[in-house]
Specification:
By secondary structure, the protein is mainly alpha-helical. It is 57% helix and 8% strand. The structure holds flavin-adenine dinucleotide (FAD).
């Protein structure tokens, strides 16, 4: 989300030079937003705010140089913030907050439809809409310290855009599960007899083992009880005739860079690369061996080649 600061570069140049009554600010801002958008089009990551900036600076350039209008230089603050407010409000009303494109750069596609991801983007977009509106109003009425306050609000907005996505998910998840809290006072530091434990976990499935590992990491003495001859529950495997069979789990989600399992492994001091291998899936269909690609685009392509009459439905499904 720190990338949102980049979108402000043309605006900062425009506002600083316009504040000095220099119309070159319009030209430079236009050039920077054009370069920014060209780079985004090239990398297929077009940002709604940068499109708005380019449209505004094109109009400002034509107005200032072709029609000799002073408006875009003299009222740069009010006009700019008003345009940005309208852009933010329209994106929220269209249920596509303008911060989406920036967030999508930071998080893999698997998160994009997540309730929390959408909520966080809506909150940040609303915060920006309010900042833009307050700044426009303050500059329009030329309120005392208006310029200093507008700069402070933009800096606060950038800090909020970076900090909120980092802190909010954990805070909201903790709040959601607080009603299940079962508080038992246990002192991890207290000396224990050999057969005395802080926590006893019944069942060594992935849930019990994870819980035990996290508690041990925090210094608790933990006993995990298991009825079966091996640990892991459904997350285990067995051998028959030279083959390894999964008891249940064959695919673990959440191992991408900012994924929950990666986070958990880090917390436990374990290495993702040493514990996991990339899954390979092969189907035998009508006697034909089909190796499934691990990339969604390739998968859609492959399925479409296999079932050309279903191509439209396959694309719609994914
Ligand atoms: C066929 C199948 C395929 C699946 N595939 C996937 C997948 O690909 N990816 C994925 O993420 N999830 C998958 N899942 C879901 C996943 O297996 C479970 O969510 C997960 O393993 C549950 O872990 P758990 O620790 O809660 O319970 P379990 O794995 O069920 O472990 C419970 C453990 O407790 C022990 N136990 C129970 N009662 C007692 C007792 N009284 N005393 C002592 N021990 C006891 C059991 O023996 C067992 O070892 C699959 C599930 C199934 C059934």
């Amino acid at each position: 989300m720190a990338c949102i600061a980049i979108s402000f570069i043309p605006w900062i140049v425009y506002w600083v030079l316009s504040g000095l009554r220099n119309p070159l600010g319009v030209v430079l801002a236009f050039a920077i937003s054009l370069a920014l958008l060209a780079w985004e089009v090239k990398s297929r990551r077009v940002n709604f705010m940068d499109v708005t900036s380019l449209i505004y600076f094109t109009v400002a350039l034509v107005g200032t140089y072709a029609f000799d209008l002073k408006l875009f230089v003299e009222e740069s603050g009010f006009l700019g913030y008003m345009v940005l407010f309208i852009m933010a409000a329209c994106s929220i009303a269209a249920r596509n907050p303008f911060t989406f494109q920036v967030s999508k750069r930071d998080y893999p596609e698997v998160y994009w439809r997540d309730r929390m991801f959408i909520f966080i983007n809506n909150v940040i977009a609303i915060a920006w809409a309010l900042i833009f509106l307050v700044n426009a109003v303050m500059l329009f009425f030329e309120l005392p310290y208006a310029k200093a306050i507008t700069i402070t609000l933009v800096v606060a907005g950038i800090i909020f855009s970076v900090a909120f996505p980092l802190k909010a998910p954990a805070y909201l998840a903790t709040r959601e599960f607080r009603r299940y809290d079962w508080k038992v006072e246990v002192d991890a530091g207290e000396p224990k007899e050999e057969d005395e434990y802080d926590v006893i976990i019944v069942g060594s499935g992935i849930g019990g083992l994870t819980c035990g590992a996290l508690l041990s990491k925090r210094g608790y003495k933990v006993l995990v009880l298991e009825q079966h001859h091996q640990v892991g529950g459904y997350c285990t495997s067995f051998r028959r005739g030279g083959f390894v069979f999964n008891s249940g789990v064959e695919d673990v989600s959440g191992l991408w860079d900012k994924g929950p399992i990666t986070y958990l492994l880090k917390e436990l001091g374990l290495s993702r690369e040493e514990l996991f291998v990339r899954n390979k899936v092969r189907y035998i269909f009508k006697g034909e061996l089909i190796d499934m690609p691990d990339n969604l685009d390739e998968l859609v392509k492959k399925l479409s080649q296999m079932f050309p009459s279903e191509e439209e439905s396959i694309r719609a499904f994914f």
